[in-house]
Amino acid sequence: xxxxxxxxxxxxxxxxxxxxxxxxxxxxxxxxxxxxxxxxxxxxxxxxxxxxxxxxxxxxxxxxxxxxxxxxxxxxxxxxxxxxxxxxxxxxxxxxxxxxxxxxxxxxxxxxxxxxxxxxxxxxxxxxxxxxxxxxxxxxxxxxxxxxxxxxxxxxxxxxxxxxxxxxxxxxxxxxxxxxxxxxxxxxxxxxxxxxxxxxxxxxxxxxxxxxxxxxxxxxxxxxxxxxxxxxxxxxxxxxxxxxxxxxxxxxxxxxxxxxxxxxxxxxxxxxxxxxxxxxxxxxxxxxxxxxxxxxxxxxxxxxxxxxxxxxxxxxxxxxxxxxxxxxxxxxxxxxxxxxxxxxxxxxxxxxxxxxxxxxxxxxxxxxxxxxxxxxxxxxxxxxxxxxxxxxxxxxxxxxxxxxxxxxxxxxxxxxxxxxxxxxxxxxxxxxxxxxxxxxxxxxxxxxxxxxxxxxxxxxxxxxxxxxxxx
Length: 471
Ligand code: UDP
What we know:
The chain is an alpha/beta fold. It has helices at residues 29-46, 62-76, 90-103, 115-133, 153-158, 176-185, 229-238, 255-258, 285-296, 321-333, 337-340, 353-366, 381-388, 401-404, 420-432, 434-451, 454-470; strands at residues 11-13, 50-55, 80-85, 141-145, 162-167, 194-197, 211-212, 272-276, 304-310, 343-348, 369-372, 392-396, 412-414. Helix 5 links the parallel strand 4 and strand 5 (162-167).
């Protein structure tokens, strides 16, 4: 087997501790007691065994966000839970991004998944496994996330750990691309005791016992906690996102928090249309920009579009991000200046997760309309986050988004994500009709409260862990 240069080290992410009582304002007393008891019983049943999570990044995406939402409660309840970030190198991450795109049913980057790719995948997986198995004890439970970590399953099972593979992506129906990706991944997963998907429709052939657990958010986290209107304005002015209008701010150093790449900045009273996403083609930032420029800006006197995503220097497991941001920037630069001045592209620094979370929280709360015009979506946490903040959302009817939003009750679903005119008129309608936007925002919060808060997903995970221990 070849050797591969520059595989980054395995690192551990510190998991804080959060008491379940933080959920008291939004979860019923009965539910809280049920959760407390379930965690206590699980702690007794595990008797000191550790639950490990392994993924490929500590920031800038839904998986990291989910782990930050859930694990501090598990830790706070006295269980031993740890989170490792596996290593990789550019060749490996290009390959796993290809698998990711194929699992969504797209064409990927046109590259193949043949013998050479299997070898690259095996070399990096073996290297990560060597660095991880020594930390894991027989009887521990290891939850591996997404294609980047599937290659660790057999090594950890051999060590005596119970392995669960959690897939965060998928597509409602098979096509040649998904078949190709599953043919590549399936052999690595034969030693997994269980698999978990976000939606039933995502379960491919050959995983008869797969579980379904919908991703959820923690209302108490820095990303989702309440922010008074003046707090969020201050945060956005300080971050250089909004114009200062005489308030003490970061105007002398607007790049301090955000790495903002375009101006001018909107004023506090300007209605903002927002999409927050990784710089991934499937999120279609380019389409949002185009739809806004063609169909929103000409018909609204002042609306301003903000496209925000993680700094492209911060995310090493997503090799396409830089190119996608550059494409959006080029298109932005070619817009007529009267439209260009109404669009902000933000590269949000990931150096300080707390500041990033506060900025995203404030942006979502400030926006008049939040959009997620993805071409494919496993499960859009950005949408859940905005819904929790009672925002009116306009999202594509793709993947998890079509479960998250009930059209006309908790947001607007776009049947065809490529239909820019329909996108524009949905956004315009909500900008003009603020009563409807408010009604949809209230429906959105209710829907998240009922289905997509962390208590539901914790209970589902506890049930699965019992089954795996007892198997
Ligand atoms: N996110 C963030 N900073 C950014 C961009 C995204 O914190 O600059 C977070 C966002 O708030 C959400 C997650 O990354 O929690 C993205 O999750 P989602 O499920 O929407 O998409 P994924 O990245 O998993 O495809």
